[in-house]
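Bench notes, bay 3.
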Amino acid sequence: MPMYAVVFEEGEDLKGQTYSPFLFRQLGEDAEVTVPHGLSRAASAALPGLWYCLHLPNTVYQLADSSVTLLKLSQQLHLGHQILFVPIEIFDQEHCAGFMAGLDPVLAVCPDGLAEECGRRAEALGFAFPPVKYSDMSSDSIREHWKQIHKRYRPEVEYLGREPQLTRRLDTAPMDLPRRWLARQMGDDTAEAQINSLEDLDSLTARTLHEQALLSALARLEREGVGIDQAEQELPRAYAEARMHIPVTLALPGVAPAYARIAYDTALRSRGRPLSALHPEDTWSPEMHLRSDELVERAAIEFVATHQALSQSGIGFLLPSVPPEAFVALAELERHFSGTESGASVRRLLDRLNEAAKPLWSQTLIEIIRRAGMLTVFTNFPIGILRMPGDSAPLSARIPIAYRPLIPLLRTIQEELSPAVPIELNRNIRVLVAECIPSRDPVGQLSRIGWRTAREIVHLEASGITMNIVEAQSRDELRRAIADEMPHFLVISAHGALGNNSAGLVIGDELCVELGLERPPPVVILSACHVAPRGTGAVSITDLLIREGVRAVLGTQVPVDVRRNAILMARFFINIAVASGQAEEHPTLLEIWHRVQSSNAVNDVFAAGSQSLSAWGRSLMPNGETVLSDFMLNRSRGRLRPPHIYEDTETVLGEMADDQGQGARVRNWFRKPGYVPESLFYLFAGMPDRILISTLLDRTQGGTSPT
């Protein structure tokens, strides 16, 4: 696979430097970072080169004509551009060998002033072509590089041509550049869309969705073996029946006001500007890094969104910044949870949050999400707990969501460009549960009961999964247990703790926000309260575990009941075991979690409602089944719509109560005191969509339908 390098000058001694997520002092006006998302001005000099690389081949498959089936299946493969993003001071074998392993170094890109040194270092590292400096980058140079790369990899096949022209508008590039890449392979117009207004953006969206539907239809016809002579006749039928499950990448900027007050002094804070959906000056330039903080941050955020969208042949979209009032409302909602909150009060706070976030919901966003198969969201705001207009349940009930933190922005770019080979977990899955709450603690006692019960359920119903429970009353004990067990899933049962604008775990008697794992497991599940709050912008252990090398972290925004959490996680592991034998249904960890999370609504109703409601759920129906069992096995089948999962659950349960002559009383319990949709206050951060409960072969050879 071709690899590119974009180098910049750090301008200081990098030896011995370590990254710390914590601010030990408020940054002042002389700080060399952009506000409010935190991109170092030195690193921003790489932006012109990073964008240039997105116009070069990401794989050798782009160098020749591909079938529509392969184009559709590529949406599952994450074929991102491999870009080494590195200061020139460490552009050498010692520091770069790990990234370059298994890749073919092709081209380095650098500012003009670094061309000579970059050339020497690139040659020593074995790069195939001389570096290109910023002043030489153009659509013509893109064309020449495509030809050179084609000659290097595929000289035996006819050159496809139709190279992408250098992007002008960056604000629409997350949608338009992947569209142009797809159009290039399908023989359509590859010209950049001309955008001057939101109406033009709507037109681009409609065109993009049409082309994705056409891809799905043609892939279906190809899979069905329809010949060329019949394809034109069958296309309208296939187009009408096309099921679009498009990978969608959203960039949702914005910083919690509480975080900004802690991070930046007044003068520095005044430089920050909210980002709009479009900005006419947001264009590619070899000097884009010299612009205002607003435009530099836009270019960086749009880059990660475009890189991710291109890797999945999907759609990317930049939303306007989260309104400050939405962060304030979210912080109040997160503070409200104490274990004694009523469902009615939580609903009122959710309504307030949705009202504050209304400006985010453009018609463009709604149309994209309606056709999305999953969302990757670069943000520090939990968009999943918002309701899309017309829905009665939060967005996380409608669609799987993977979160990527956006602060600090430099780290976001580094994480997006880190190699992320898919992990296959399809047999002999090891789960380690670390009990970190002292056994004398009442919550610790409940936790042990809950997880022992969960282990019994998993071992009884989930073949292929082993679950071990260990005591870990210190960080060292936890690390040793991980080294001994080498689990695929690590569950940490601990108290969550908030303080000094950080959210961590109490392990034994120690507050930990960083764990320092030497060999981190692929997945960590934090069975703890409020370890992923977002309202105040707290530094969270959920995000920091991603930076320690964990591929995916499941955390909670609010306090959760330890017993309900254990049973929910048992359902999760059972579904993983089932999916390992039925990969065509739920091939990724993210999809399995979404199924478990959204189908847990009825358990939220009974477990988080009043004692009377819980007791009624255990009562018997005329057929001898409990209300809960009859609901799950019989009455709810085909009745529950994900965008209205709680509303539909109430409707079905109300009908069941009518059969018992208790309809009015049960419906009143739904509202007073009500229940809390606890299952939807979980966040999956990182790359759970790249953890496969199947093999890659299953996914690309019939495991998943290409329509």
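Next record in the batch:
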Amino acid sequence: MGRPDKSKAKKRGLRRLFSWKKLLGTFFVVCLLAMGALYVVYLMVPVPTANAEATMQSNIYKYADGKVLARTGKINREIVGLEKIPAEVQKAFVAAENKSFYKDNGVDIKGTTRAVWSTLTGKGKQGGSTITQQYVKNFYLSQDQTATRKLKEMVIAIKVDEQMNKSDILAGYMNTSYYGRSAYGIQAAARAYYGVDATKLTTAQGAYLASLLQAPNQYDWTSASPTGRKLVEERWNYVLDNMVEEGWLAAADRTAMKFPVPQKPKPAPGMEGQTGYIVEAANQELMRQGISEEDIKAGGWTITLNIDEKKQKDLVKAVDRQLEAKLDRKGDKKDATVQAGATSVDPKTGAVVAMYGGIGATEHWTSNATRRDYQPASTFKPLVLAAAIENGSVTQDGRKIGLGTIYDGDSRREVVGSDIPFAPENEDDRSHGPVTVQTATNRSINSVYAQMIVDVGEAETKKAALALGMKDGPDFGESPAMSLGTMGASTMDMAGVYATLDNHGKKVTPTLVKAAEHRDRVVTPAKGIGEQVIGREAADTVTKAMQGVVQSGSGFRAAGDYEAAGKTGTSENNRSAWFVGYTPELVTAVGLFGEDATGNQVTLTNTINEGRANGGRTPAQIWGDYTTSALGGGSDASFDLETDSSTPVEPDPEPTRTTEAPEETTQAPTTTAPATTPPPTTTATTPPEPTADPTTTPPEPTDEPTATEEPSPPPSIEPPDAGGPDPEGEASTRPSR
């Protein structure tokens, strides 16, 4: 008798245990249990009352000392009945979010399952909700991305679909959704984006608003990046194509439609004066840290700013005294084009202690403190010098570049060593002959800095500028013209760059938010001080050079009872005028910008003063007025500079009383020197041989200012614009303490 086959017996035992009948039975039991569980959940989960988000909280913005600056959060919402919304606009929302809305029972099982799985597996936010589900989320639940919330959303959506008709659900969805620009609901959105009531919306406009719901901040046309604009336009087309597919829009009407570009944003009520600018800048900073605009607008935040109330008031008063009091905005169209912006930073912490965005956020919404569409002009020149010192650069004939290095300062002198022809004109086409780098900085001589950037290398200069805090962009090209500040920059950008120089080359990033707290989260503020980005010697040498600008150069109107360094700037066609400067304790960038009523850039010439509006005039006067007040009348603090003293620099023997030359960068520069200019030697940057020591022999004198352009003494000496010419030499030296 053979032995029994144990393996066969084992297999028969497994088949008996896992037979198809048992497996099928188990499956049905599991399904019944699941259905039973869902039914129990259905019975146990009621339709709740409106959630806290439906009655939004306010946000509180505080000064650095804790005093309340502003409260926001009064919901910009007006409920409108569906009968007031054009039928085509209603269909646009359905086409954008849920084409099966009129047929489904309130949930999309497949889409919701996908969203739940994405949440459970940590893949993040995932779409798939119906309009009913989104309405339930907005009105009854929270925005949390959890499986529990998603399950409740499904159950409540089914019940809501049973209890409410589709029209009421659609109306609730359109009235509770967030559209960006602080607009909750279709009525507020219609006014915010198109300046009309919801009843007046066109189909194209409705399709845009429906498209916004996917990403309100990213898809706002006026502030969107090129990628954001492309995406929202694609989604707009998607919505209209769906409407045609569903028979809700005629193909011919669809073909004739053009993308409806929305109007520029307008501030919410209560954001008058500088408050709106500051609050918006703080919100933007929080968004850069990862807080969504929707989360901020939902309310419940206590945001403490770095803004110093006294310094903020000092800055506003300085602009009012030195600019606004001299303009007739209502009676003179030219005066109305002048816009001022400023940012003031503590160089030791990066804290933005004061900001001036314009005449008022409700009158001029674009902040002149943070806009980057104007050129910083000659305020960029110190960055060329910083790159030269940092890299140990030499001239074309091998001389190391420092404050005592001699350059040819003749007007229209063509740069040597560049493949790009460039021969910039100096102010009034004046040739200065051989000058030191210090004198060229004092007088902002274009021809010297155009040659210097070639000597340093445009790429190396840009690298240093970005490290210091400039922002890259399509207008930041590498060419000799870059030396004249042809890229775009904001006053906040330039304040950060100069603060880094003031901080001996250690990176300073202007930060507005000191702390941000919510009931269930705390945001770590942005870091104001970073790593060493250029060497201390390079940074301190630039500071030393710019001290000369204030003491005896184009920025002498900024002088006061304090040590100061700074630089003037006046851009092409006089569209912007700047003074950016600092003391050991405070860095401030002030800019004037020419802008007409339609937002186009225009010249500042013959506005605040007759002739060019120079950076060394009104911007320097605003800077000096503010700095004097902010420092309590003055300061004994001194710059602690570590520079290469091997090449002593003599003071400019003839301090300039004019400001820097205009940077006419878009016009083709001439390469023919004036008849009175000595021809350059064959060596690249060696100027014509001087007859005496170039550091002590006065160079070619600058023009004496006319009576109408005669400078006023700095604020700390006597009141500005006291009338008449300056006393001999008064503005050329720093006043005693």
